[in-house]
Structure formats: structure tokens, C-alpha cells
């Protein structure tokens, strides 16, 4: 019950910003939908506006939303007080924000796209006699997109609680640095593991067998299994748990904005 | 109700509290006094779990405030000096936040708002600073929490509102509640706060009721500069010298002027050491 109260408080307090964001999405879809319908009528190709734009709003929009969702409550000199002294457990306060950005956002975005497509397609049918092409969330790997969003969003959730300002930029920067570091480590690992195939430090022998992956099928299977485990299992759990610990330890001295 | 033992706290490398001890009993309106930067706000934030002490133990309402447990927060209301109110109407705020406080008294809230002249249909962000403070104060008093922490509550209030504030706090006081009011405006708090806590140089240097202070000290105005070991503090004023001195058995009790008391404690904290020990 108390958890629902916390969620309701989050929604009510962010209602205005979320409405503006929703309206922006609708207007972008509307403009694009009208333009595409007009161009199709002029003999251009008909393309789906919705499936093209959905990943952008899902991933980029979701990551930015997640990044800023903790800012006022965790790192604002005046706003922090209300959140820290709100009579709710720290787990509820954290989970309310986490669930809204990880689960509610993709669902709401899907509904918004579907609702917008009904309005826009009806208008284009009336104005341009363009055939109706509603947004269908059950095609084009949308489900898999949601799963990838869930995993990657957890990184931004951690960034939102870890960095005290410029959360999104710093998370992207940190990801880039980690990516570079992992690439270097991977390069050295390959150099060591496949040493017989190298002639110089990073020069590969010309007779490098193309079927090397089949030759080392067990190794690649294990590597893929580990990569899947890290990506789908360890990464989101680590990010959520670390972000929760960060919420637990945040105090007034962390407020910077 | 509140026990702080051997508290150490510092901002960066600058120490603020060093082995601070404090014990607070329920059923009182404590006045927390201290110079600028003495750590009054820090102390209040430690009590409400917004800052974690680096050393020592704290117990608030039987809970460790560091954990910020729901049960503790349900029974604690903290009005900070600077605050944020969401962009919504007063009645909407009430609908959203009141359910978090199980003992919230809606009738009392309406009465406090009426006393302070607040319109709940008005958007909170359109209110003046003083009106916002009165709104939050009304909310905090109506929450019926066992512990109410007010940090500089009269800052930003107009003169009628200050007396209204004293009346409202006095009417909201019960034997089961405790108020801790931090203030620089001691004149605003006269006849309201008792006992008095004064922090100085990282420690609690005075923690005593006005009655016990009046039994041991007198404050008088003398025409010439007073001298002698019984004089704890003296200050030149246009009509002579205001002095605080040890009371002997023949002298009558005098009211304790908070400003003089505060100046005396800061100037001569050793003279009050025994007052602190008595209450712990």
C-alpha cells in the first residue's frame, strides 16, 4: 500500500514534465506522419514512421529520463530533504523510481505510440487517402527491444544514482571509457590465447584458418554463454543492487544542485 | 526519546562535532541555540537521518536514523530552513502526503491553515516564502508525529505570524510530543522553548530547563560595571550593565533572558558545565 503511495507521488509530482514529453513525442510523430503521407501521395515511398522512431524514443528517451529521475530527490539541496524524510522504506523509494523508468516507461511509450498512430493515421486517411498503418508493438522485435532496454537502462539507473550531476553525459562517458578498456583487455586476451596464429605483436599469420571458430567450438560456446550471463543476468542485477546501495548511503553532503 | 553519544562529525577535514553527547526527553519544546556555523542544522539533519555521524551512536525514537526506517520517519517531521514544495495545490499536496503519516489529523490541519490564513486551493509555488513555511508548519503539526524538528521556523514570518506561530505550537504540544526548535531569533521563542540546548565548539555546552537556570543564576541590570568571581557575564547597555551572576540564597529568582543566557554561555561555558551534567 505504501509502495503504491510512493509510486503515485512520483507520478503526480512528475505529471507535468511527463505530459510535456508525451506531447512532444506526439507532435514529432504527427509532423513526420503527415510529411510521409504527403510524400507518399506525391509518389514517394511509404515508410513506417512509428517503427522507425520507436527505438530512438525508447532507448535515448528512456536513458535520459532515467538519468534525471533521481536528480531532484537525491542531489538537490532543497529537494533532497522531502525524499529522504518521506515516511517510506528506502527500498520502496528506490523501486518506485526504478520500476517507473524500467517498466512503466516502455509500456507508456508503446501505448502513446499506438494511440498517436490511431489519431495520425485517421487524419492521413481523411486528408491524403493514405492507407492506415497503425503502430504494432508485436512485430519487428519490439519485445526483444524491451529486454535490451531493461538491461541497458539499468546502467543509466546506476549512473543516475552514482553521479551527482550531468548524470546522462557522465554515464555515456563512463560507458565509453569502460568499452575502450574492455577492448584493450580483449585484444590482449586474444593475443595471448591465440598466440600461435600471430607472427608479430598484432600481425596475424596469412594462413589464419577461417574455420577457427568451429575448431574452438567449445571455447566459443562457453564464451557466448558467459557473455549472455554477464549481459542478461549479472549486469542488471549488479547495476540495480549498486544503485540501491547508493540510495541507502546518500546524505545531505551529496547535494550539489 | 533521543540519545546521542560521543558523536563525531566533520565536513571534509573541518571538524564540527567532537564527542558530542545529548539526551532529549519527550514532552518538551527544546530550544537549540548556537552561533553561526556551530552545527545546529547539521545536528538536526543527523537526527532526521539526512546526515550520518562519522563517530558515535544515535538513537531517535528507538531507531538508528542512519537506516531511515519507515517507522521512524512516520513519527518524525522536520521543517528545514530552506525547503522545496512541488508545483501543485495545497489540497493536492495534502492528498498526496498526508497518507504517509498514520496519525495525521485533517481537522487540525484545516484549523491551522485557517489560523494562518492559508488558502488550500492556491498553488503552492505561487505562495510567498512565509506562506509556504506556514503551510508546511501546519502540515507538520497536523501530522501528530512524536518528534517535530523546526529549523529557524520564524525566519520569513511577519510579526503577527510569529505570535501565531507561538500560539499554534503551544496548542499542538502534548505530553507525547517533543519539539526541537533551532533558532537565532531568541526573542521570537521566548516563553515557548524550554529546556535550552546550546552547542558551541563542537559540543553541547548547556542543556537545562529555564527553571533550573533560574534557581542558580540571576540576571540583573546594574548601574556600574560589576566585578567579582560571582559575575559570569556582563554586557554594557545604555542604562548600565546587564549581568548574569550566581544566585545566592538571599536573592530572588529572576526571569532568564535567553539572549543574555546565550551570550553568557558562549563567553563563559565553564560556568555552566555542571548544568549539562545534571540533565544527562
Can you give me a brief rundown of this structure?
The complex is a heterodimer of chains A (257) and B (280). Chain A is mainly alpha-helical.
Most strands sheet of chain A: none
Name the pair of protein chains with the most residues at their interface, and give those residue counts. A-B, 26 and 29 residues
Oligomer: heterodimer
Nearest-integer average pLDDT of chain A: 89
Task: Output the number of helix runs of chain B.
Answer: 10
Please write the string of helix (H) and strand (E) elements of chain B: EEEHEHEHHHEHEHEEHEEEHH
Number of strands of chain A: 0
Helix content of chain A: over 70%
Percentage of residues in DSSP E strands of chain A = under 5%
Strand content of chain B: 25-35%
What structural category do the secondary elements of chain A indicate?
mainly alpha
| Cα shape of chain B | globular
Q: Strand sequence of the main sheet of chain B, in spatial order?
A: 5-6-7-3-8-9
The ordered string of helix (H) and strand (E) elements of chain A is HHHHHHHHH
**Biggest beta sheet attributes of chain B:** 6 strands, mixed
CA-atom Rg of chain A in angstroms? 23 Å
State the low-pLDDT regions of chain B, or none: none
The number of domains of chain A: 1
First-residue to last-residue Cα separation of chain B:
13 Å
Helix and strand composition category of chain B: alpha/beta
Amino acid at each position: 500500500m505504501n509502495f503504491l503511495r510512493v509510486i503515485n507521488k512520483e507520478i503526480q509530482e512528475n505529471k507535468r514534465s511527463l505530459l510535456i514529453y508525451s506531447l512532444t513525442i506526439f507532435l514529432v510523430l504527427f509532423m513526420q506522419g503527415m510529411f510521409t503521407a504527403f510524400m507518399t501521395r506525391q509518389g514517394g515511398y511509404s515508410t513506417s514512421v512509428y517503427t522507425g522512431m520507436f527505438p530512438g524514443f525508447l532507448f535515448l528517451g528512456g536513458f535520459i529520463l532515467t538519468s534525471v529521475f533521481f536528480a531532484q530527490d537525491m542531489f538537490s539541496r532543497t529537494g533532497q530533504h522531502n525524499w529522504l524524510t518521506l515516511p517510506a522504506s528506502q527500498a520502496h523509494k528506490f523501486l518506485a523510481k526504478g520500476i517507473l523508468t524500467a517498466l512503466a516507461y516502455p509500456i507508456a511509450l508503446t501505448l502513446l505510440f499506438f494511440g498517436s498512430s490511431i489519431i495520425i493515421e485517421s487524419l492521413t486517411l481523411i486528408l491524403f487517402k493514405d492507407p492506415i498503418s497503425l503502430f504494432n508493438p508485436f512485430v519487428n522485435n519490439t519485445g526483444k527491444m524491451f529486454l535490451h532496454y531493461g538491461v541497458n537502462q539499468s546502467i543509466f539507473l546506476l549512473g543516475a544514482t552514482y553521479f551527482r550531476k550531468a548524470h546522462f553525459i557522465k554515464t555515456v562517458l563512463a560507458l565509453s571509457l569502460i568499452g575502450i578498456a574492455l577492448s584493450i583487455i580483449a585484444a590482449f586476451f586474444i593475443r595471448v590465447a591465440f598466440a600461435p596464429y600471430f607472427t608479430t605483436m598484432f600481425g596475424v599469420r596469412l594462413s589464419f584458418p577461417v574455420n577457427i571458430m568451429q575448431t574452438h567450438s567449445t571455447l566459443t560456446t562457453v564464451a557466448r554463454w558467459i557473455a549472455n550471463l554477464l549481459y542478461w543476468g549479472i549486469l542488471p542485477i549488479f547495476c540495480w543492487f549498486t544503485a540501491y546501495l547508493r540510495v541507502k548511503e546518500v546524505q545531505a553532503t551529496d547535494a550539489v544542485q | 526519546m533521543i540519545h546521542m553519544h560521543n558523536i563525531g562529525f566533520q565536513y571534509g577535514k573541518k571538524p564540527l562535532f567532537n564527542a558530542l553527547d545529548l539526551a532529549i526527553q519527550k514532552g518538551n519544546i527544546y530550544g537549540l541555540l548556537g552561533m553561526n556555523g556551530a552545527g545546529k542544522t547539521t545536528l538536526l539533519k543527523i537526527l532526521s537521518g539526512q546526515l550520518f555521524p562519522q563517530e558515535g551512536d544515535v538513537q531517535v525514537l528507538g531507531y538508528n536514523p542512519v537506516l531511515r526506517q519507515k517507522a521512524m520517519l512516520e513519527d518524525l517531521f522536520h521543517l528545514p530552513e530552506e525547503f522545496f514544495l512541488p508545483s501543485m495545490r495545497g489540497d493536492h499536496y495534502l492528498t498526496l502526503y498526508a497518507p504517509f503519516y498514520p496519525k495525521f489529523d485533517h481537522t487540525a490541519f484545516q484549523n491551522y491553515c485557517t489560523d494562518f490564513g492559508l488558502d488550500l486551493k492556491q498553488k503552492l509555488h505561487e505562495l510567498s516564502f512565509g506562506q509556504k513555511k506556514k503551510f508546511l508548519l501546519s502540515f507538520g503539526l497536523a501530522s501528530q508525529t512524536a518528534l517535530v524538528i523546526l529549523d529557524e521556523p520564524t525566519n520569513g514570518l511577519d510579526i503577527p505570524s510569529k505570535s501565531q506561530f507561538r500560539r499554534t505550537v503551544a496548542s499542538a504540544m502534548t505530553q507525547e510530543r517533543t519539539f526541537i526548535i533551532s533558532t537565532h531569533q531568541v526573542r521570537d521563542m521566548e516563553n515557548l522553548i524550554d529546556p535550552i540546548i546550546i552547542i558551541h565548539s563542537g559540543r553541547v555546552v548547556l542543556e537545562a530547563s529555564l527553571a533550573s537556570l533560574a534557581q542558580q543564576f540571576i540576571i540583573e541590570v546594574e548601574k556600574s560595571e560589576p566585578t567579582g568571581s560571582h559575575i559570569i557575564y556582563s554586557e554594557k547597555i545604555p542604562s548600565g550593565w546587564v549581568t548574569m551572576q550566581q544566585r545566592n540564597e538571599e536573592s530572588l529568582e529572576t526571569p532568564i533572558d535567553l539572549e543574555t543566557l546565550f551570550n553568557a554561555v558562549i563567553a563563559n561555558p565553564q560556568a555552566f558545565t555542571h548544568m549539562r551534567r545534571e540533565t544527562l
